[in-house]
Amino acid sequence: MRVDGSLRVPGDKSISHRALMFAALGKGESRVRGLLCSEDVKSTAGVLRALGATIPGVVATEFTVRGGGLRGLRESATDLDCGNSGTTARLMSGILAAIPFDSRVTGDASLSKRPMKRVAKPLEAMGAKFAFATGDGLPMTVHGGLLTGTTWFSETASAQVKSAVLLAGLVADVPVEVHEPASTRDHTERMLRARGVDVRSDGNVVTLLPNATLNTADTDVPGDPSSAAFFVALAAMSTGGSLVIDHVCVNSSRTGGFEMLADMGALIAYEDIHDDGGEPVARLVVSARQLRGITIDPTMVPSLIDELPIIACVASRAHGETRVTGAAELRVKESDRIAAVVQNLKAIGADASELPDGFVIHGSDRPLKGKVTTYGDHRIAMAFGVLGAVDGNEIEIDDRDCVSVSYPGFWSDLARVAR
Ligand code: S3P
User: Is this prediction's pTM over 0.85?
Assistant: First the structure.
């Protein structure tokens, strides 16, 4: 398989969710361009609409939101359905905790199994109340109320937990400080600063000081590095040619996947690096070299957590061993991604084994053939879709449509650039 041509991956998912939430919470008009139009982002739009925000009925790449201010949301008459989206459920919990009404938050079968107490705990420490129907997952009811400030030592390196606490502090107008075990993606901090909020970062500690207002700001959403990683991997596994990926967010809290793919052999040139709307963006030009296995340091994990399924698939074609540890969080993503990656690699004939907090893969160049079970997880479908494009491999994917939560046009983009 050769690669050829150029593509622009859809807007960053993390920034798209936040752009909608901040547009709804600002007072006045905000314009959003380059928004990711996917099922996950539609979940955030739907939840905000249910809470009375004037989000246009059809989520489009480009549109304008008239926000009602930090106190503008109203109690919803219906459940707040977050679909498959953890970012929607967890970030909205922070907002809902600070408003004095009750909200019942629901999601699909996958999201309902994912841990929510990691956001409930700090928000309860601030004064909100959470009620869980069963265990740690959805449905949950958020009883919002008057909050006090907190200094929270987070057990997990999670941008969603950090963001939930920052948003609760913002809406409640109280100071909050979050200490993380390792620093995570910083889009919330950047976007709040761009809207006039006093947010300070010092190593793994983020502090938000009371502000009372959130200015409006337009957002240009750059391309999602986690989506671009599939095409970097495709080019890395190709027999020749090069691929241009335009306008990709290269925020260093997100580019660990590119760094590790480069260590494995991908040749990545970063061109036209510039700042766009508070985020660094670049054009990536990618081609292949000999692939080799690597050991990923646990400290790298937060910066490449969503890229580990595709890194595992590349590892199955790389010379030698690839070892990932310190990534137990993978077990509570849209699927148990450690089990899903390893079981599927084995099912198609690759050498892979699970660790409690990661995996070990020995690569080869023998053809990989068989059926892959996605468990409805978009990143499992795309990772094995890319591996299936490699010459000699024949991989059938049980549910190709699940890519719609983050990258609806994935299959047509793949078909266009893989020759
Ligand atoms: C996200 C944070 C990460 C990531 C997810 C998006 C965000 O999750 O895996 O896809 O937008 O803040 P965690 O906070 O659970 O690590």
Answer: yes
